[in-house]
């Protein structure tokens, strides 16, 4: 019970000290919120882009063009070798055989190409296989697909192989780079938050130096003296986190109008969504802990200097 009363007293003291200087508290909250809003916006954008990238990263395809001299019956039996190579590589595939006649008829159906195809005489198109693969979830999966394409290139009767997976790899690399940059930015701005809270609490400690000295003469422990300042730092971080999240919502509302217009041009319905409740609570907890950490560093240094 004494422990609970001590924390209740510390919370009341922290709240009373903040009420004595509301302007300073509001200014510090705004400064910290401005530092927090950049990584929060970046995190929100990455969180919205990840499902979009998964939708865009449709099943990569390997198009295998066979030699025009290969008889069609041999071309059709080549599917067993293709499936066996994929099984050995640990990749699940679906094969589609496109005969040269089917490819020619498809080409004729293209607008404006019928007359051009008719002037060719013999069919110059080869038989082909379209190999559709399971979506690679990481860079290792893309490497397996590239190795499989190399295996196909060395098969007898294969003229050329076209791999449509490089752009998936590039997209994954861009998202990975964005995540690293975001973490570096968050670490840098976390240092800014600690510095602001440190200086704010240090100023409060200096203003309360006489009160602290009297309390220590009356037998107050360093923990009792420091506890209200810890709560002040926590309240500062919590308020700044709430303000930063409100700022993120305002930015999303401004961005959503042009984003919806851009998506409609591609026949899609898309808008930026705020972070889910679990992530929001975790971020508020992190901002609160940053405030507490800054206050602990400040109070610890101030008390050690006054000893």
Question: What report would you give on this structure?
Answer:
The protein has 307 residues and is of the alpha+beta class. It has helices spanning 2-20, 22-56, 72-77, 79-89, 100-109, 114-118, 139-153, 166-207, 209-217, 222-265, 277-306, and strands at residues 61-66, 93-98, 128-133, 158-164. The chain contains eleven helices and four strands, in the order ααβααβααβαβαααα. Strands 2-3-1-4 form a four-stranded antiparallel sheet. Helix 2 (22-56) runs antiparallel to helix 8 and helix 4 (79-89) runs antiparallel to helix 7 (139-153). It is elongated. The relative contact order is 0.15. The mean pLDDT is 76.
Summarize the structure in short.
This protein has helices spanning about 1-20, 20-55, 70-75, 80-90, 100-110, 115-120, 140-155, 165-205, 210-215, 220-265, 275-305; strands at about 60-65, 95-100, 130-135, 160-165. The protein has about 300 residues and is α+β, with helices and mostly antiparallel strands.
